[in-house]
Design goal:
The protein has about 170 residues and is α/β, with parallel strands linked by helices. It contains seven helices and seven strands; from the N terminus they run βαααβαβαββββαα. α4 links the parallel β2 and β3. It is globular and about 45 Å long. It starts with a strand and ends in a 9-residue tail after the last helix.
């Protein structure tokens, strides 16, 4: 799975309330509308700067706070191809995989806002094309790559009506 895009960098402890502010959670049935406000409390202009395929890059504890699936959903709907961070809140990481949003734990110190990246999830590499630097990551397990290709756990179950991952190691 090869992803390409520009980076938008944030710091540590980005909570789900920064990802989608509580004042928009009442619109939970209109995720497209909510996605227009993604990351608004961390960067009020984020949605207007975002292009489809871009990456969110952050420090530690990304997605801390409430365990709502809404947070990774609005990130995905907004067009972010993946979130790269030094660390994730456990429930956010699981929710992201479940809904088909790639999340990658890695050293983000060699990535600045605006850098162009190429991320190969299966091979376990990030190529910072702006700085001409490679960052090694642990490749995602084959099961996770297949779930992401299918659009997440729910979409996988809709497609196969069960786990269909026997051929994946």
């Amino acid at each position: 799975m090869l992803l390409r895009g520009r980076t938008h960098k944030f710091g540590n402890d980005i909570s789900t309330d920064y990802i989608i502010a509580s004042k928009y959670k009442a619109r939970a049935l209109d995720l497209e509308e909510m996605a227009k406000h993604v990351m608004e409390d961390a960067d009020p202009n984020f949605a207007s700067k975002l292009s489809v395929g871009d990456f969110i890059v952050a420090g530690t504890n990304f997605g801390c706070g409430s365990s709502r699936e809404t947070a990774p959903r609005v990130i995905k709907i907004a067009g972010v191809s993946a979130v790269l961070a030094r660390g994730f809140a456990r429930i956010f990481f699981r929710n992201a995989i479940n809904i088909g949003l790639p999340v990658v734990e890695c050293d983000t110190s060699l990535i600045e806002g605006g850098d162009e990246l190429e991320v190969d999830l299966a091979a376990g590499t990030i190529r910072n094309m702006t700085k001409e630097v490679d960052i090694l990551i642990a490749p995602l397990p084959g099961v996770m790559v297949e779930l992401l290709k299918d659009g997440g756990l729910v979409e996988h179950f809709k497609r196969y009506r069960a786990f269909n991952l026997r051929s994946v190691t």
